[in-house]
Design brief:
- By secondary structure, the protein is mainly alpha-helical.
- It has a domain at 3-68.
- The protein contains 3 helices and no strands.
- The longest helix is centred in the N-terminal third of the chain and has 29 residues, at 3-31.
- The radius of gyration is 25 Å and the shape is elongated.
């Protein structure tokens, strides 16, 4: 399995789990009728659009959070990570002519 397929699978699995988590959170909000949200959504004309926007926000938030925490816990060293390097600095002062 090459690197691209491993990374693609890693991102897809974590995105899917995050989307599922976001969907479950919105479903729980609707099921428990938090702040009368289900009542408001079911009685207004644009309720379906409101739920769609809520789903999009929570699914993308949960997916991004899950993916970023999964990337922090990988065993492989990250490429392109900054490292500390000591460099001798030259003086910025110009020599004065006197």
């Amino acid at each position: 399995m090459d690197d691209r397929s491993v990374i693609t699978r890693f991102v897809a699995v974590n995105f899917g789990l995050g989307a599922l988590l976001g969907f479950a959170f919105v479903a729980a909000l609707m099921a428990f009728d938090v702040a009368n949200l289900r009542s408001i959504v079911s009685t207004t004309e644009g309720g379906a659009v409101a739920v769609l926007l809520l789903l999009t926000g929570f699914m993308s938030l949960a997916s991004g959070a899950l993916l970023s925490t999964a990337l922090e816990h990988t065993d492989e060293p990250q490429r392109g990570m900054p490292i500390s390097v000591r460099v001798a600095a030259r003086s910025r002062r110009r020599p004065t002519s006197s």
